[in-house]
Amino acid sequence: MSDFVELGERRFGRMNWLGLYTLAKRETMRFCVVWTQTLLAPLVTTGLFLLIFTIAVGPGRGDVMGVSFMTFLAPGLLMMTVIQNAFANTSSSLVITKVQGNIVDTLMPPLSALELVLGYLAGGLARGLLVALGIGTALALGLGIVPVHPIVAFAFVVLGATFMGAVGIVAGVFANKFDQMAAITNFIVTPLAFLSGTFYSVDALPPVLNKITHMNPVFYLIDGVRFGVIGTSDSSPLLGFAVCSGATFTVCLIAWWMLKTGYRLKP
Question: Of 150, 128, 127, whose CA–CA distance to 140 is shortest?
Fold first, then answer.
């Protein structure tokens, strides 16, 4: 029969837009259902960080980069929270399906590796942007901190959420159990976020640590958002954007390869 279609043949053209939309919607609704945990909790945590540092440092702390310490700290906390949530969204989604044994529900639909990557990234990006919107609104209303270069800040937030969302895909594919994911989070993701100039200017570091910090892509993400918010930074925003774009492309390529080959996903 001329209308016969072989089993497994794609009938969606070069891109399965319906399948991609469905996966992206699933990943977005997954965190929206538990919004108190995924959206409200990061806002509260960021507020606690600011409160604790205000109490611990006190008003006697001098200016950093020409602004008060709280104003300097705020954009770093915003980006740190964004990347942690983007990472958590993609990594937890994959690990949960692997532990529950229903990863086949993701692998069987007619979705290419690129479509899977984009679908998971859509969920991580959406969560990261919503977290950034909530924290940014709170900073504007509560502390009067308004971005000097909002487009630059937005661009780095998008880049950061995409980068760590892709890292989450790689980690989620690699990890087979929750304790393995916890190890990746505790020993890789958290140190990258905390030791990247979130709480301090890297100019205050010894030369060796300063050079090591400049090899961390997360440093450029936080520095880029800081430039977008307060107008000054430790490094060139253009350099940071180039480094982060290259790192994001590389990690996305690794995630695509893992899903394409079925690495640690297929028997």
Answer: 150
Give me the mean pLDDT over the 14-32 stretch: 94
d(CA 201, CA 180): 32
Q: What is the Cα Rg of the chain in Å?
A: 20
On the CB side of 161, CA atoms within 13 Å amount to 26
DSSP string, the chain: -TT---TT---STT--HHHHHHHHHHHHHHHHTTHIIIIIHHHHHHHHHHHHHHHHH-TTPPPBTTB-HHHHHHHHHHHHHHHHHHHHHHHHHHHHHHHHT-THHHHSSS--HHHHHHHHHHHHHHHHHHHHHHHHHHHHHHT----SSHHHHHHHHHHHHHHHHHHHHHHHHH--SHHHHHHHIIIIIHHHHHTSSSSS-GGGS-HHHHHHHTT-HHHHHHHHHHHHHHS--SS-HHHHHHHHHHHHHHHHHHHHHHHHHTTTT--
pLDDT tens digit sequence for 156-195: 999 999 999 999 999 999 999 999 999 999 999 999 888 8
